[in-house]
Amino acid sequence: MTGHKLGWMVVAAALLAGCGDKTQQHGDSPVVLIGQASPLTGPQAHLGKDNENGVRLALDEINAAGLTLGGRKVTLELKSEDDGADPKTATTVAQKLVDEGVVGVIGHLNSGATIPASKIYSDNNVPQISPSATAVAYTAAGYKTAFRVMTNDAQQGSVLGNYAVTKLGAKKVAIIDDRTAYGQGLADEVEKAVKAAGGEVVAREYTSDRSTDFMAILTSIKGKRPDLVFFGGMDPQGAPMVKQMRQLGMKATFLGGDGVQTPKFIELAGADAEGVVASNPGLPLDAMPGGAAFKAKFEAKYGQIQNYAPYAYDAMHVLVAAMKRADSSDPAKYLAELPKTDYEGVTGRIRFDAKGDLAGGAVTLYQVKGGKWQPLETVKSGT
């Protein structure tokens, strides 16, 4: 620790004696540091910036309204880090955020980054709310600091697999995943649900989250004549995959999860996006309680919403609402308030179950029609 860093910590501690808050000091106003981590460079940067901007919009609004904790007006400051959607980088980023003194983290975006980072936050008692990590393993670890505001993959995969067989009429299904915690985890759940609904899984293949050439995999799958191909992964792989399917003359329906259900997918896949079906946890933006208002203010400031921005926005508000109830930004004090959350957000009512998962979530199916994602059906899970 440098002498400079030690200096501001001593000053902050002296000014907030008895509060226990980990704050910096800018003039007379204590500054509370909030962390955000997502891929801000690379092929998933459009999604990472979407998360960052959702957090920033909420943080700016909270600061504009004024936030008082422990009898003092405080200012929130965002520390945003690029984890590159990489598990190893994510742990480095998490430790950096902890060392910088953040009192809470919104992130990470990808399950593969969120899961290893969650141990570091847990070890340092820093609350973490992911707006987009859906892998079951994230909250299954049992860390008391881990929460998410989005439906998990056990729910999403079950809906996808069942929908493929019962609504899309797929008797023979091929499954490909990108071998990330998200992609493989979702694919596993889809496979179970397809079989439970009476469908046959005729192929199970895998690639990576950096690949763009899927011809060998698809050629192998084509010979098994699937009615439907499910891909567990993100849009930078999903778009070239469906284009290559069509180049091979494969007529099978292409089905994806939330990593595919983005405007960027349509942009990358072009005309081959037409007819693609994908799911996304939660309600369609226009059906969210605060969706229309959020869309107007977000897009006026940052442009088109890619996917998870409303959840990142809600996660930031949930974190601060817990601080308000505890009247402190000290994680040792406000962490106990997070499990009590009952917050009416843009995305809907947010409550957590005993694991930190969203209670009573929903999953919506979409299809690309006329170059746009159009909602097909919303399935709500039990409360």
Task: State the domain count.
Answer: 2
Largest sheet: 7 strands, mixed
Q: Quick one: CATH superfamily of the largest domain?
A: Response regulator
- Which strand-content bin applies to the residues? 15-25%
Please, how many helices?
13
Record field, number of beta strands:
16
Let me know the average pLDDT.
93
Report the structural category.
alpha/beta
- Indicate the CATH topology of the largest domain: Rossmann fold
* CATH class identity of the largest domain: Alpha Beta
Task: Name the overall outline.
Answer: elongated
**Unreliable stretches covering 5 or more consecutive residues:** 1-23
Order of helices and strands: HEEHEEHEHEHEHEHEHEHEHEHHHEEEE
Task: Provide structural commentary.
- This protein is of the alpha/beta class.
- It has 13 helices and 16 strands.
- It has two domains: 3-151 and 287-352, Response regulator (Rossmann fold), CATH 3.40.50.2300; 153-281 and 363-380, Response regulator (Rossmann fold), CATH 3.40.50.2300.
- The strands form three sheets. Strands 1, 2, 3, 4, 5, 6 and 7 form a seven-stranded mixed β-sheet that branches. A seven-stranded mixed β-sheet has the order 9-8-10-11-12-15-16, covered by helices on one side. A two-stranded antiparallel sheet has the order 13-14.
- Strand 5, helix 4 and strand 6 form a beta-alpha-beta unit.
- The chain is elongated, with a radius of gyration of 21 Å.
